[in-house]
Amino acid sequence: MDFDFDNAHLDRIRVMFIFPERPTMGPAEEKADLEFEEEIPFSPSQATRKVHAFDFESSQLASHMGFSHSWSYKQIHIRPIRSIYIVLIKAKINVLLPFGPLAILLHYFTGKHGWVFFFSLLGITPLAERLGYATEQLALFTGPTVGGLLNATFGNVTEMIISIYALKNGMIRVVQQSLLGSILSNMLLVLGCAFFTGGIAHYKKVQEFDKAAALVNSGLLLMAVMGTMFPAVLHFTHSEVHFGRSELSLSRFSSCIMLVAYASYLFFQLKSQPNLYKPIEEGGENNDKDSDEDEIPEITHWEAIGWLFILTAWLSVLSGYLVDAIRAKGSVEVKY
């Protein structure tokens, strides 16, 4: 808070400081006080010293307040720099970030689409990792359930953006191969690595999973497999009622069903049965150690949200150049 005093207020404070009000006294005390004042007259030097002391204290107070304001301003200016250092410089994988601008320069100044594709891929790699980091930082403020959903959503945003650009350019085969690779990697590679590393990290105890949550996830997985398999079976068996149209209608219907199922899953996880997705407690001593070693967020939740938007925007830009390089390379090969 600021103290704004004019000269009149300062004079009043000085007079009150020099001649403070005395408490009410009885006749005997007043008489003794008068006799004491007659014996010891008032000295002007004492008043001068008191005034100087008051001025010194006022200057000290003002300097302290000015220091606090300057410190807060410095904190406001230092925090963005610290956030940039943590997100864009601190991690070792960020050495690949310059390949993104380099891919854009190669796209405009050279016709080497292979190098543009390679450098764009290198530039996208750290962006995907930093997206995961920002999501994890935001999950520390939202809780494990919402954090898991954010991680699952932004973990696939790279493939989603590339697929959208590929569809806009009519590269349906690229989208199909991307979806197939994503499904196989998440079903087999990621899940197998999670089981393997979990068994190594917690080799002294059995990994436990909630039965209801596992059944829900298995049902969603089965629905996704059926939605992908039925149009393919209809196409390869040539059992369509109308050539081309039946397959397209079934694909659109399956996609709508899967979107509704995913929305129902979100409601089930966040509102209906949120207790099913809480971590299973296994032993009191280990839980105490885990609670003591809770991860402290390195950036604020608003900074995490801002970085999610910034990284997603830059990722979409590089994805556009990546898809353009694939299309240009394919058109050149067709000509030859």
Overview in brief:
The protein has 336 residues and is an all-alpha fold.
Question: If you average the pLDDT, what whole number results?
Answer: 74
Q: Report low-confidence residues grouped into runs of 5 or more.
A: 17-44, 46-58, 282-289
Largest sheet: none
The 3D shape can be described as globular
Helical region count? 12
Strand content: under 5%
N-to-C span: 75 Å
Specify the helix fraction band.
over 70%
Our Rg estimate from Cα atoms comes to 35 Å
Order of helices and strands: HHHHHHHHHHHH
- Total beta-strand segments: 0
Structural class: mainly alpha
The overall number of domains is: 2
Explain how this protein is built.
The protein is mainly alpha-helical. The protein has 2 domains: 7-67, no CATH class; 78-208 and 280-335, no CATH class. It contains 12 helices and no strands. It has helices at residues 7-18, 27-39, 44-89, 99-109, 113-142, 144-155, 157-168, 172-201, 211-236, 245-272, 284-292, 301-335. Helix 4 (99-109) packs antiparallel against helix 5 (113-142) and helix 7 (157-168) runs antiparallel to helix 8 (172-201). The protein is globular. 12% of the residues are buried. Residues 17-44, 46-58 and 282-289 have low confidence and may be disordered.
